[in-house]
Structures
1.
Amino acid sequence: MSTVVEDTLDEILDRYTDEPRYLVESLQDIQQTEGYLSQNSMCAVSERLRVPLIEVYRVANFYRAFSLKPRGRHVITVCTGTACHVRGAPRMLDEVAGQLGVEPGETTDDGLFTVETVNCLGACALGPVVVLDGVYHHHMTPAKLRKLVTRLRKAEKEAKSHA
Amino acid sequence: MHKLAPLPVPKLSSVAELTALRKELIARCQTETATVTLCGGTGCQASGCRAVVDAVEAELARQEVADTVQVRVTGCHGFCEQGPLMVIEPGNVFYCHVQPDDAAEIVAETIVRGRVIDRLLYQDPVSGEKVRTEREIPFYAAQDQVLLGQNKRIDPTSIEDYIAEGGYSALAKVLSGIAPEQVIEQIKASGLRGRGGGGFPTGRKWESCRAAGDGNGRYVICNADEGDPGAYMDRSILEGNPHAVLEGMIIGAYAIGADQGYIYVRNEYPLALEHARTAIEQAQEYGLLGESILGTSLAFDVEIARGAGAFVCGESTALMASLEGKVGEPRPKDVHTVKQGLRDRPTTLNNVETWANVPVIINRGPERFAAKGTPESTGTKVFALTGRVKNTGLVEVPMGTSLRTIVFDIGGGAADGATVKAVQTGGPSGGCLPLSKFDLRVDFDTLTRAGSMVGSGGMVVMDQNTCMVDVAKYFLTFLQDESCGKCVPCRVGIDRMLEIVTDITEGRGRPEQLDLLEELAETVAETSLCALGKTAPNPVLSTLKYFRREYEAHIEEKKCPAHVCRALIRYEIDEKTCNGCGLCRKACPHGGISGEKKKLHVIDQSKCVKCGICRDVCKFDAVTVA
Amino acid sequence: MIQYVTISLDGAKVRAVKGSTVLDTALGYGFCIPHLCHMPNFSGLGACRLCIVDVVKNGRGKVTTSCTLDVEDGMVVETSSDKVRRLRKNVAELLVAEAPNSRAIQDIAVRCGVEEVRYPFRNKDCVLCGRCVRVCAEMWQAKAIGFVGRGKQRRVDFPFGVRPSFCKMCLSCVDLCPMTITPCDGPMKPGEEYLCGKCRSQLTMNEESPATCVQCDLGKGFGCSRATVA
């Protein structure tokens, strides 16, 4: 199994056909390729892996790695682990709440940003940590976060006007 | 990555072939004149070590010394806040905060001419002096890096490095004539206890599992779900030395009689996942996993499984449920998992650090292992020392070291001129211990008696700016979020405890609530189905025990002594100190500060959410909180 | 061939069928251990924690749920020790504070000795006992409903929140739901919930003989083992 999954839904389902024990793995692969779990893909998994539909739905709702709605183009993940917490992680959430108007788990109306929290990334000595589109940023402050988000917004605007 | 040309992969079909290979690999290493080691752990990656590696390799080529210099990117050294880290041999020169632009000078001065660059040296925050070599770094020198030491010398993506360092010699020793029962006796004699938090005697666990077999196969599992926030020892070991974990598992499988193993890695550790996968592939290529390991009759293979974001899956029965493709709901442990575990088969589940200690015990012998630590808690333990302390990072010390030694001598004491108030150990299952208890020795039983626990090894240092009631609220919130929700005491009990603590932090606390909190805590601890619920009351109970006055201040005076609880504090701008620079106005995320240039700025209390960002950015200390 | 073991139940040595649970054994002998999520002939969930007992096995004592505990030879079980009664009362208090609008749960709370509720009442219409889920999955094999969500968000739901075609509207789930019986005076108004306790007159025996069946509302129609025996 490769680390980076860029297979189609069919390729993923082929890999796990008739193997109910790979339910979590298959949904992880789909989440990575498609960015979220659609009703369609969950029904397909139920059929191909021979797992009752309610079980697929349960697993999709239980684990935080899965989102049942499409996420924004940019995912901002704020670490809220203990070490980051005592170094001021709540302020990052205040910052995005003010700047973007969204709470953790929500996506901005323009579909650009999704804010999520994670309960520890294991980079505790460098806290507060914020991950932006898979890139780790350390020793974050609300001001640095504001700058990053503003820069991204600007880039998106420019891309749009060029299109 | 600059590497020596790989040898053609031989499937090792005997112990003798492994020994011969090791000799050959060691001989090849001796042709280098210099080695540049860079830490490639997650922390240093976040600090940009990749760019430094590229720059160094480019410079070595440009300055035409690439042929005799080995560049090695290793696993996590545990000193993350100082990264990117670099060690140069010969000379054992230690550089920290290395940037790509430094590469040219490093190659020209240190590698070619053997001269040290002063500005890249580590400055000890306690003594103020510059330290030249890695060996002399006080943070490292005070540790006993039995496990972490290997991280510094091994490229985790190279099985050859591991073998050259002596890797798989414990397996070879075992397969050269030690009976499985004898291996179990050695683990028992070592006194090794589970490093994941349970502290259960490992040898006894293996023995029960072996005895429970009925001929239909057993499983071994490595629990790499490290969910305790603030703990990253397992990340560093699995990322930095995955073969040590594998070797431990293979030895365990041999001793117990298992034919299949799993490493369950939380998906928040992508680098550990990648390195573990690579290690398994390499071990399979070399005949160290699969059928007929090293030419013997031992057949054992390992599969990787990914966690999907659930702290409860660190609990063994929930982890096994997840491995079976189900939701991570724990089940009662009236029949232990060593008898009926994964797919109802006898299963031995151990933590990453526990598995990594196995080759150490076999190689050095159980007596040498047991000579460190205390009689009841033998060996060394890796701790993650984080929070409001000067030297944050991974600390490996013998069990029985005092909290004071760890926090002050190794950790350097409080950061930013503050005063240490408490240390939180054991993650959400553990408790907070006050400064007055810092002479306590850190071992499984001592900390548990004091109301906390060693847990997986997380240690978060707190100072006078930390509110202990807020800490209790933080952990209850965490556990409420992570509870699977099946049983009433955990799902509802934690929620009600949080309701009470929230009342207290928001000024609605009543004295009788403290008694109710204690009674509810006992109920949750005694009646919850699994360890998540059973240990959930610990943060509340320990803070009540040692910091009751903070609770009382919140309840009786409606004040938060540490100025943290937002409902009980008020931010104001002091008119004498404010010079109207406007920094706070720009920084406020809710537009709650107004004022003209060079004139006094004012906080609109109706908009203020007490986040404290204004106080952080003010350069003149004009923002007060009371 | 049925095999038997001997266990001690509140001091009495009784013969138990190997493979049965402590709860089923106790109920079969007329010992009432309060329970909510247990249903005879269905899998034990261990969710409500009301059926907890003190058990000593191989010299080790612990508190655990009797519905998930298989009998073992030599086991010593205390169903109503002071400790267990105190813990059970606190659990029942949590339950009735969540859902006071259920006659069955009110009965159980008083049966477990709850006299005052020290938490603000909530008015949930589901206590996640899992009776509905198990009857759908284990009796009818339909699996049309299940526990969805984690922790506080846990709820019983259909896949995607929509009743699937393979739900045949058998209404077994409704039949077994403890929430479908209202207190004798009718549903409580939100904000005016209280611990009813009127059935206390039936429960005076509770203090003297805690293991006696009191014909609580859970038994009358929800398939409590006692109801089938009586």
Note: Helices of chain A lie at 9-16, 23-34, 39-49, 53-62, 82-86, 89-100, 142-162.
2.
Amino acid sequence: MFMEKRGQITIFIILAIVIVALGILLYMFYPEIKSSLGFEDQNPNIFIQNCLQDKIQETVDILTPQGGSLDPEFYYTYQDDKIEYLCYTNEYYKLCSVQRPLLKEHIEKEITKEIQDDVKECFDELESSFRGKGYQVDLNRGVFYVELLPKRIVSTFDYTLSLKKGDDAQVYEQFSIAMNNNLYELVAIATSILDTESTIGDTEITTYMNYYTDLKVEKNKQSEGTTIYKLTDLNTGDIFQFASRSIAWPPGY
Amino acid sequence: MKNKKGIINIVMFLLVAVFLISLISAEVSYCCEKTTYGAWCQNEDQEKCDSEFQKSATSCEATSYCRNGCCYNSQEGNCMSNTPQRVCNQEGGVWSADNTCDIPQCELGCCLIGKQAAFVTQTRCKRLSNLYGLSIDFRTDIGSELSCVLSATSDVEGACVFIKEFEKTCRRTTQKECNELKAKEGEDAEVDFYEGHLCSDEELGTNCAPSDKTTCVEGDDAVFYIDTCGNIANVYDASKYEDKNYWAEIKDVSESCNYGTDGNPNSRTCGNCDYLLGTTCKEYDRSKDAGAPNYGDNICRDLGCKYEGQSYDHGESFCVVFAQGKLTIAEDENKNTEEKNLPGSRHFRLLCYNNEIIVEPCADFRQEICLQDESNGFLVSACRVNRWQECIQQDNKDDCENENQRDCEWIGGDKCAPKYSPGFDFWAEGSGGDICKGADKDCKMVYEKRIGGDYTCEENCDCDDESWKRKKNEECNSLGDCGMKENYLGHEGYYDMGDLYEKGDIEEPDDEGGGGLLGGLF
């Protein structure tokens, strides 16, 4: 009798633990569970964010070690990376000519170009998703652009989405995806280094590391005169890498 | 007949002219708007110019499309000199012929923005204002970056006390931010600003009280206490934890514990860290920090490094040599040692930043050398150009060893040689050979024929000695990657003394005098 009672208590305790665990899991993952089970209609902005953010991150991860270009045309191969020259001279003893004076804008264009097919697909999916849920959908596709901003990369879509289901009507006038990334800060430092490469021919990296406490700057001179610069944000691990050839010295002259 | 001869002459003349022109054009450098390998605006051989772009048989500086100038980014307000016109226009910039960027759009001033300052153009200052949502003050009267940075001041902060959910609470803000909060809440709202006070000040009567929690603040090096409402209080000082005054008024970092000493590395009791002194606020980590702080979870982390058993402070840099396959600290960094001049060797500079050693190679072929200095025990180093080129032209010790002009040393009492011998890419034809010839030496030994037919040496008798040969080889080595020496990995070179030393022919004199033997090192 006593043993039976103890067994029942054990079962109750186990049940209680399971219920509490389920409660915690539900609390932690409630929004995801809800949306994955289709309990609610997802916010279109979140839908687009979920659909595109991996692609944007992947694009950024490809272009940042390559000097800001997805497919560098003129590059130096270093540790299997194709690193684009942002300043270059083929001659000895001469200052380099800047090859990418508007680096930030170039990177923004590169990301915009790379994600355009995915943007179309994601908005197509968004339309069909809401149609499948019985909505009358009207999507007016305007322009979209990517901006590097302090501590974030923002993609803005000037698209208008109108949803109607019975008496319920909603209009979404702009979509926006913001991702945490310090590329803006790294590009600003790269631009400053480019300026000294083109005017002095070399850069003292300690100046930057003394001023920016969470920045690591590496400078690697190659035998033929190219210098590889690698900037790393020590907090986030974000990197930016580029090549320059300025005031190169020939061996033995 | 005469006509025929004339025609032949003209044809011959044309052929010669075409030949000469082709010879000249082969030598002339072209300005390629774009090269076949993708670079913009380079002086190159004609065949390396991309045929779809412009080219001219002149220097790029003389062309309209590739002339370097100033590229102005009207959106961001940045200026970039040494930018070819074609590149600037293509990327969407505004090009100006003034390569120094001495144009009104690029005029720099001091942009005071929030707590910070930047020496930038006015457009850039406005752009920063937009990006950070802060009001700006652009000062053209401040003419240097240093004075600009020093002029940055933060708005006075204090305690902004207000009622929230029937409770008197507080937020640490500036006067302006507090006014904005008041405007938001309405004129009748009870919002008061107490300049210089902390929210934990008992006299304010808010629900914010002292706590034993600390935090790191972005843009600040120090560890700060936080109150129970999450407001930043003063710098963490364990001895002031129960000091009501310390929790009542805002104290400057300079008034806090151990300011300006050593940055308080690993201090359990003081959080007055200083990045320039080698510490910064970080969350306590048992594996990295010596001891846990008495209160809170943050500490002044020592950012120094260890390398080959030696400790270096954050920010220190020092020179090393690559010898026997690894980077090694030389006993005397500025002393010229043989290992610094071996074929394939290179000077390196190591930097200690944020607990990490960063390796920076100086230019290869010893075209740059690493120099090191010390100030109050703090090591500073730099890679700088090796000025060896004029050494062999110097004919006296003073000129040779004039450190303001060149990096040379007077050797053997009669020769000026590079102090840090340059490297050559010996696999490329002609590289270095002419320089090594500077060590060639003819040495005529004079022998006298004795009665009985024996020869005895009378002059320059040591030219055949091993010591003379070794000395001459050392002179040869000092000029560059010349002569017989091991490389930086300790591998023997492909010359031995026999390759470098050649005995000449014996010259018999016409009279009864001694004969001569020509010996020399090449």
Note: Confidence is low (pLDDT under 50) at residues 18-26, 518-522 of chain B.
